[in-house]
Design a protein that fits this description.
The chain is α/β, with parallel strands linked by helices. Helix content is 24%, strand content 28%. The termini are close together.
C-alpha cells in the first residue's frame, strides 16, 4: 500500500488545529518524511506507525518551520533504543543549519546506544536523483524561494508520482518538474490581496493556483501551507478555490492535519 499522511498543514504560523507543514509517505510499510515540524514522534505513535520503519527524512529548506522538530525526533528515537540508520537529505545550505542544531544537543555522537545518522547533501540540480529503493524513487528540483529550497517528486513501485512544491514562488523549474504528476501538493501561503507580500517573500498566492494546477495537470491537487490565524485561513482557501472557476476539472483537496490519502 502507498499513502500520504499530512502531519501538518500550516504555514510558518501554526493554528489551534494545525502544525507546520510536514508530509509522511508510506510504501510497503516503510516511511519517508518530508520536512520535520510539530511533534513528529507523538504523531507517529498516534498513527500506530512503527518508528523503526521511518528510514528517510528530506528537508526541503532551512526555514525554521520546516526543520525545527528534527532534534526532538532524533532524541526520541535514541531514547526508544533505535539501532537502524536514519538517512537525512538536505541542501548544503540546510545542512549548515541542521548539523549544528543536532550537535547542539549532542545527537550525532552519543556514547550509549548510538544509531547512525547519515546526512546526504542535495546539490540543487534540476530533476536531481536523491535515492531509490524497493519502496520509493525520490528526485528534487530547485525552486524560487527566499532562500534555497527544493520541490520533491516521489515515484512509487507501481509508477504513481507525487510532487510537493514546498515553499516557492511561481517558477518554470517547478512546472517542468511537476508536469504530468498524478498528485501535486501546492503551497498556498497567501490570498489575493497579499500578492505583493507573496512576491516579496517568494510564496504562492491564490491568483496563481489555477494556472499552475492547470499547467501541471495532476489528477489530484492538494493545497497546504496556509494558517487559520494568518493570511489565508482554511475557509478563505476554500472560498477562493470555488470562486471564479480558478481550477480545472482535476480534483482539489484542502487537507487538514493527520488526513491521509491512498495513492493508487
Amino acid at each position: 500500500m502507498a499513502r500520504v499522511i499530512f502531519l501538518g498543514t500550516a504555514s510558518a504560523l501554526p493554528s489551534a488545529t494545525q502544525d507546520n507543514s510536514s508530509l509522511l509517505f508510506e510504501s510497503n510499510g516503510y516511511y519517508l518524511m518530508i520536512d520535520c515540524s510539530g511533534t513528529p514522534y507523538r504523531k507517529l505513535l498516534h498513527l500506530g506507525i512503527d518508528t523503526k520503519k521511518l528510514q528517510h527524512i528530506l528537508i526541503t529548506h532551512h526555514h525554521v518551520d520546516h526543520c525545527y522538530a528534527l532534534p526532538s525526533l532524533v532524541e526520541c528515537l535514541w531514547i526508544e533504543g533505535r539501532e537502524e540508520p536514519l538517512h537525512i537529505y538536505a541542501l548544503r545550505s540546510a545542512i549548515a543549519i541542521i548539523e549544528p542544531l543536532l550537535d547542539l544537543f549532542d545527537l550525532r555522537h552519543r556514547m550509549i546506544n548510538y544509531f547512525p545518522i547519515v546526512i546526504h547533501p542535495i546539490d540543487g540540480d534540476e530533476n536531481e536523483f536523491i535515492f531509490q529503493n524497493a519502496n520509493f524513487t525520490v528526485r528534487s528540483t530547485p525552486t524560487l524561494h527566499a532562500l534555497p529550497s527544493v520541490a520533491t517528486k516521489i515515484t512509487f513501485p507501481k509508477g504513481s508520482t507525487f510532487v510537493y512544491s514546498s515553499d516557492t514562488a511561481p517558477c518554470q523549474t517547478l512546472v517542468d518538474f511537476a508536469k504530468g504528476a498524478d498528485n501535486f501538493v501546492m503551497e498556498c501561503t497567501f490570498c489575493d490581496e497579499d500578492d505583493q507580500l507573496a512576491e516579496l517573500t517568494r510564496h504562492l498566492h491564490s491568483s496563481e493556483w489555477g494556472d499552475l494546477a492547470s499547467t501541471i495537470g495532476a489528477d489530484h491537487t492538494f493545497m497546504i501551507h496556509h494558517s487559520d490565524v494568518s493570511f489565508c485561513s482554511y475557509q478563505r482557501v476554500r472560498e477562493e478555490i470555488s470562486r471564479g472557476n480558478k481550477f480545472p476539472s482535476q480534483k482539489v483537496t484542502i487537507p487538514r492535519d493527520l488526513d491521509e490519502f491512498v495513492i493508487e
